[in-house]
Design brief:
It is an enzyme of class 5 (isomerase). Helices cover 15% and strands 42% of the residues. By secondary structure, it is an alpha+beta fold. The protein has an 18-stranded mixed β-sheet that branches. The chain is globular.
Length: 289
């Protein structure tokens, strides 16, 4: 089977995008297909697979599969790329429209250079802060309190974390130097920690000033990636909660792949603005499961 695809990236966070309006795939083969296309040696190479599909509750729908085949709830960079792809292909014709993800429906607005989408702003909705909504367990259960600068034992090292859900779970560690962040040692240990029954995305943040932070991430199901849009949103929310940056102002988040502009506005919603880029198009020769 030859599957047409588009490879896109948001700040280096690359996925293989399949137009589900034109290509039908069986549910059972999606996890294996995600693993196959993501493989840099025997596939195309990416952080995972995203399907763009018709929606009954929004203008367009997306499904996200990590490179290990697991299905994700949300993806900020993926939302921006789906917005670009849907507009560029003519499935939506207005500049403001809604996208359905597994975590819910969000609003997107595209900015054009000529006839093509260059930047996308996404209203990521309200963050969830209660422990049970992350979800994050304690020895006594899940609870409804917020997790802000809470002691967190990793091996024999006692660190501190703040937890935020942006439709998918995130915990944030603060470091003095992003170049020295223990992403390789702490990331894989924490992402599957039993305190997180659904796994967790692990972020490391260095605060530069009240309007800029440095950011690196170990993503649940994918490992180190160049960028994570929902993680950048969670990092800004966390930085407000820890009094490092102010509410209702734009914060520049410096990721390995580039910059996002994030603000947690007074309505409680988190706004994310950044680029979406098409890399290449082609056909993937799929042998099936």
């Amino acid at each position: 089977m030859n599957i047409p695809y588009t490879k896109m990236h948001g700040l280096g966070n690359s996925y293989i995008y399949i137009d589900g309006y034109q290509t039908n795939l069986s549910e059972s083969e999606l996890p294996k297909l995600a693993q196959a296309v993501s493989n840099v040696n025997t596939g195309i190479g990416s952080d995972g697979l995203i399907l763009m599909l018709p929606s009954q509750v929004a203008d367009v729908r997306m499904r996200i599969f990590n490179k290990d085949g697991s299905e994700a709830m949300n993806c900020g960079n993926g939302l921006r790329c789906v917005a670009k792809l849907a507009y560029d292909l003519g499935y939506v014709t207005k500049k403001q429209f809604k996208i359905e993800a597994k975590s819910g429906v969000v609003e997107a607005e595209v900015e054009l250079v000529g006839d093509a989408v260059n930047q996308v702003t996404v209203d990521m909705g309200k963050p969830e802060l209660n422990r049970s909504k992350i979800p994050m367990l304690t020895l006594s259960g899940d609870g409804d309190e917020k997790v802000i600068n809470e002691p967190f034992l990793v091996g024999e090292e006692n660190l501190h974390v703040t937890a935020v859900s942006m439709g998918n779970p995130h915990i944030i560690f603060y470091v003095d130097d992003i170049g020295e962040a223990p992403i390789h040692s702490v990331g894989p240990k924490v992402t599957n920690d039993p305190r997180f029954p659904e796994g967790v995305n692990v972020e490391f943040v260095e605060v530069l000033n009240q309007k800029e932070i440095n950011f690196r991430v170990w993503e649940r199901g994918s490992g180190i990636t160049q960028a994570c849009g929902t993680g950048a949103c969670a990092a800004v929310v966390s930085s407000v909660l820890n009094n490092f940056v102010e509410r209702n102002q734009e914060v520049i988040v410096h990721l390995d792949g580039g910059d996002l502009i994030i603000s947690w506005v007074h309505s409680g919603h988190v706004m994310m603005k950044g680029p979406a880029v098409t890399i290449t198009k082609g056909e993937f020769y799929w042998q099936g499961v």
